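Weekly sync, protein design subgroup
Attendees: M.S., D.O., the rotation student, P.L. (late)

Item 1: inverse folding check
M.S. brought a backbone from last month's batch and wanted to see whether the design step gives back something sensible before we order anything. D.O. pointed out we never logged the input encoding, so this time it goes straight into the notes. Structure tokens as presented (259 positions):
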């Protein structure tokens, strides 16, 4: 039996996630507030009134900025108050709907990542009239998707390279146990049911340099893409889901593949 163990969303692209006990999903949408915000690089051109997909290199992200892994995020979604912690100490506090606080946030990241103040990043979001669950998601792919990762697959990978791999390296939304390692690749093009919610598995997840970062130390200690290709002949781990029929998904929900 396959069981959903973790539900995680990442409100600010590149920063730490929030563990949820359950989440309500609408057809055609991602997890509410997942990648709702991003920190755009100084030369990134984005229209917040009608945002479109941009590559991750346009934003602060682990693919280039591994030190981001050392920040722990606490965001109150009601009043948009953000707290950032470094080595368990508060290092930034402010509101994401306050221009002065946003300027301070930009300066904080310049200092934290040693970026020239003339090239300071800025927080961006979807300012369109879309409803919250249909806001633009600053995902690594253009689709409104939820990433699913098998903890059995990660165990198999660990055994191959003889190293421990923290599942948080892969920044998945759903992590599950049970089933056979790597069988999730066979689900592409099939329907999946988690609790009462139905999904379409539409794509394998290709891994990039961001996964080389240890989420605990902020160091690049395992070349995940290299090791995947060495032992399995590809760069993929995990799959992307599209919500077909909405509802509530909870931790410990059963996962079924629909034939």
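Designed sequence read out in the meeting:
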């Amino acid at each position: 039996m396959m069981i959903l163990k973790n539900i995680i969303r990442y409100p600010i692209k590149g920063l730490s996630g929030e563990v949820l006990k359950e989440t309500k999903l609408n057809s055609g949408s991602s997890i509410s507030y997942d990648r709702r915000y991003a920190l755009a690089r100084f030369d990134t051109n984005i229209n917040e009134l009608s945002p479109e997909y941009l590559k991750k290199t346009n934003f602060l992200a682990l693919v280039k900025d591994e030190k981001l892994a050392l920040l722990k995020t606490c965001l109150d979604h009601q009043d948009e108050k953000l707290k950032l912690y470094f080595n368990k100490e508060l290092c930034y506090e402010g509101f994401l709907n306050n221009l002065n606080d946003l300027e301070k946030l930009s300066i904080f990241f310049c200092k934290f990542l040693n970026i020239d103040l003339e090239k300071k990043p800025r927080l961006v979001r979807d300012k369109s009239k879309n409803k919250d669950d249909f806001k633009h998601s600053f995902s690594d792919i253009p689709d409104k998707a939820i990433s699913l990762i098998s903890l059995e697959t990660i165990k198999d990978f660990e055994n191959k390279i003889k190293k421990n791999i923290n599942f948080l390296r892969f920044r998945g939304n759903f992590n599950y146990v049970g089933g056979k390692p790597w069988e999730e690749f066979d689900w592409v093009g099939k329907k999946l049911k988690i609790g009462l919610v139905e999904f379409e598995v539409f794509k394998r997840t290709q891994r990039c340099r961001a996964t080389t970062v240890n989420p605990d130390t902020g160091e690049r200690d395992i070349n995940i893409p290299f090791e995947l290709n060495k032992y399995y002949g590809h760069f993929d781990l995990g799959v992307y889901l599209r919500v077909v029929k909405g509802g509530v998904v909870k931790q410990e929900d059963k996962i079924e593949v629909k034939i």
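Discussion: The CA atoms of residues 204 and 239 lie 4 Å apart. Helices lie at 99-113, 151-161, 224-232.
Action: P.L. to compare against the previous round before Friday.
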